[in-house]
Amino acid sequence: MSTFGDEFQPIIEELIELGNSNHQIINHLKESYSIFISERTLSRRKAEWGLSHHAIQQTSQLEEDIRRYFHQGLTNAQIHHTLSSKHGYVHSQRTLERKIQHMELQRRKEDLEIDDDEGMDVVIECVKKIHETPEGHNVGYRRLKQLLQTRYGINIHLSTAAAINRALDPEGVDRRSKRVLKRRVFNVAGPNFIWSADGHDKLKKFGITLYGFIDAWSRKVLAIFVHTTNNNPRHIGYYYLQLVKREGGIPRLTTTDRGTETIEMAGHQINLMRQFGIDYDLDPDQSHRFTKSTHNQKIECLWSQLMKQYNGELISQLYEADEKGYYDPEDPVDHLLFIYLWVPLLQDSLNEWINNYNSYKRRRDRKSMLPSGCSANMCYENPEDHDSEQGLIPIDISVALELENEHYPDAKDLTSTCPEWFSEIVDLLKLEMELNCPETDTQNVWSVLSLLRSAIQLYDSAWLDDITNDPEETIAARAYLLYDIDSTT
């Protein structure tokens, strides 16, 4: 009879990575190698080989990665390619497919049964919830299918998604079907050759602005930053350095319109190109291009998509809230509460929109010179699959950190949107008054604002009841003072 020696360590490690239990491993050893051991012996050997904790940790991380890519809609082949190239996965695609099956991750091969009323009701309720969000209000059937998968893990046929969408939103379907698109030719060598950046002012009436970056080749949205201003050069320069640190390098070229807000960003790009672009035979002074807004094609296209899929409905909600008196934009306290609630809410919501946008598989377009038939994430990570090359110029991250510390020592104040004193008081009121504030979303934000407004009024009233307190120190008085200062600057 064979012995259970050290030569079985790699076999056990592989079985553990595949998610096998001790019982399954013992059966495998018995059937494949005619080795009969007890569970106690297996546990002892796993401990000796350092596989007990390692197995749990490694398996957990692998499953998390698989689950994330699966729910992004990647095929098994794409998941295997991504794990192999980005996460050091060494096993075959067939092994990965067994792992996916073991994790009970299934892509629905058959659509909902005709008589599956309960299943259909669940799907319809989920679609209604999606339609209530800014992102899902004007969604097409292909994107609806993706949102059902990423948000709820529900997989249905495109035909079913189209039928449900038409039943619940017939006017929206008719409106989208009349769309006519005229293309312009756009050619880039690969990801990170060009980053396009621009501001978006459609929410400026409400005191909120956006600034976005997009990779021109893959059309991957690199980031959208939410703030109360997007025309401060220091903000844009700081955003650019955050992307450089995250990506580990700089693009060959950045493009923006001619606004003064991009001066610092252009300076950082040229400065870093001078230091790290020597081997690329590129002119650092030409590494940033100022262009007309209408020529900054890809970022303008992004704003168009954002308006259709997200902002359009959001703007309607904000106008409706103003008309119905949910808040008074001219009242300084209401304005501060609006910014306090909406900026982080929008940032989180847009981050989710970006994730869905980047993982959405575009339909194949043989007329386009840019990649199609794949998601922006897959194109960005795997340019070689499209006969293209990676354009990122690696840099020493410590240099970007030095630039950040030199130019933005006040980064915390620079990126904050509410006065620190206001945020601290609101957080204190939540705690001391035991306010039952739910996690804020676009459906309950106005009730949360009303709750906080009432708490502030009670606080100010109690403050004024004490004649020794300075009336100028109420929250309302401080907000009015801040409002007057802002309106004169």
Automatic annotation (TrEMBL):
Keywords annotated in UniProt: RNA-binding
GO cellular component: nucleus
Superkingdom assignment: Eukaryota
RNA-binding in keyword set: yes
Entry annotated with the keyword RNA-binding: yes
Domain Integrase catalytic: 187-379
GO biological process: DNA integration
A molecular function GO annotation: RNA binding
Name recorded for this polypeptide: Integrase catalytic domain-containing protein
PANTHER family: INTEGRASE CATALYTIC DOMAIN-CONTAINING PROTEIN
Pfam families named among the record's database cross-references: rva_4 (PF24764)
